[in-house]
Amino acid sequence: PFYATAARQTQGGIETPPQRYCVFMTFDMASTLTTDLQVLLARWSAAIAQLQAGKTIGTVEPSHGAGVGADTGEALDLGPASLTVTVGLGPGIFDERFGLAKHKPAHLAAIPALPSDNLDASLTGGDLSLQACADDPQVAYHAIRDLARMARGTATVKWTVLGFGRASAGANQSTPRNLMGFKDGTRNIKEPADFSKFVYLKDDAGWMAGGTYQVVRKIEINIEIWDADVISDQQRVFGRDKVAGAPLSGGTEFTTPNFHKAGDFNGRAIDPTAHIALAAHENNDGVKILRRSYNYTDGLNQYGQLDAGLFFAAYMNDPEHFTRIQTRLGASDRLNEYISHIGSGVFAVPPAPRSGSYVGEALF
Ligand code: HEM
């Protein structure tokens, strides 16, 4: 359910085992009236509760011909399909426009410029975010479409990504593969204790207790160049075996990598500039983030090459943890030759509302 329960204070779509599809959209507020923001969050919340239950958000077929449907109808008969919609608030919600600065979550601030950024302004930022994930792509799309429709006049759409083939693993899920053909999510956060320690905010976060921060990056992959790379180099880039997913220091998929083991890549079995060597918590002061990414494709680019990549979505109790890891990756990751960060956003994800209430109620 969308609303908080005794056992769960957090919104869905975070700890929820990743569904197969995702539609992500950001919005900028068009109105500067605080009540318009409040009404939008309340209407979205009520609608999301309906959608997650597999219901429409109003009539599809009005009783007389001059009526316009409240729900667009394309998800009728498809059921809930494990839908979750996660609502995020960008830094702009707490600027001078709405008088909410005193409620600003302690760690919410735009992600600073990072090495190897290639950001497109039209794919960056946003005052609000919606992440809809479901096992049926049409259910996820319908949710975003109808929620965007409700926002018309109050907020304008900014950027969106359609994700498929979850590229992250939750607890008890087999590890899927990203478009580079490697298993993604092997060493993701899976234990409840790690969710408490690294993802959710504690009581000292005030109204945000039970909430978290969402960092998203649209990362283009130069697929043709990657596909021409020899297998030994592909494995060196990640520090893992391609098919089995085992670390190059030996063992099987879930064997803990040994970053000190001697070998052929800059003196180590796992190259010190391999993606996992630079990203692992052992080499980042123990910091972990929850990754919940999806593959995406936008068809072909202007050169007739595949336009595809990773919609990277991550949750953490301080966005500085993303910044810290990405600062190291951006400077030296062997993966950089094949990828480009083109979109970015950071959002505070409030806790789930109490039944009958709405996301962000504490702000108003
Ligand atoms: C691990 C792929 C971007 C953080 C991995 C793994 C793969 C992978 C295949 C190894 C399996 C696993 O443990 O999940 C990619 C691709 C990316 C990308 C294809 C971009 C297109 C990022 C970014 C970050 C990140 C932007 C964060 C700033 C991590 C972390 C790990 C990891 C923390 C776990 C390392 C460990 O503990 O061993 N990634 N990744 N990745 N990645 Fe990425």
From TrEMBL:
<keyword id="KW-0732">Signal</keyword>
<keyword id="KW-0479">Metal-binding</keyword>
<dbReference type="GO" id="GO:0020037">
    <property type="term" value="F:heme binding"/>
</dbReference>
<dbReference type="InterPro" id="IPR006314">
    <property type="entry name" value="Dyp_peroxidase"/>
</dbReference>
<dbReference type="InterPro" id="IPR048328">
    <property type="entry name" value="Dyp_perox_C"/>
</dbReference>
<feature type="domain" description="Dyp-type peroxidase C-terminal">
    <location>
        <begin position="175"/>
        <end position="352"/>
    </location>
</feature>
<dbReference type="InterPro" id="IPR011008">
    <property type="entry name" value="Dimeric_a/b-barrel"/>
</dbReference>
<comment type="similarity">
    <text>Belongs to the DyP-type peroxidase family.</text>
</comment>
<dbReference type="GO" id="GO:0005829">
    <property type="term" value="C:cytosol"/>
</dbReference>
<dbReference type="GO" id="GO:0004601">
    <property type="term" value="F:peroxidase activity"/>
</dbReference>
<keyword id="KW-0408">Iron</keyword>
<dbReference type="Pfam" id="PF20628">
    <property type="entry name" value="Dyp_perox_C"/>
</dbReference>
<dbReference type="InterPro" id="IPR048327">
    <property type="entry name" value="Dyp_perox_N"/>
</dbReference>
<feature type="domain" description="Dyp-type peroxidase N-terminal">
    <location>
        <begin position="11"/>
        <end position="164"/>
    </location>
</feature>
<dbReference type="InterPro" id="IPR006311">
    <property type="entry name" value="TAT_signal"/>
</dbReference>
<keyword id="KW-0575">Peroxidase</keyword>
<keyword id="KW-0560">Oxidoreductase</keyword>
<protein>
    <submittedName>
        <fullName>Deferrochelatase/peroxidase EfeB</fullName>
    </submittedName>
</protein>
<dbReference type="Pfam" id="PF04261">
    <property type="entry name" value="Dyp_perox_N"/>
</dbReference>
<keyword id="KW-0349">Heme</keyword>
<dbReference type="GO" id="GO:0046872">
    <property type="term" value="F:metal ion binding"/>
</dbReference>
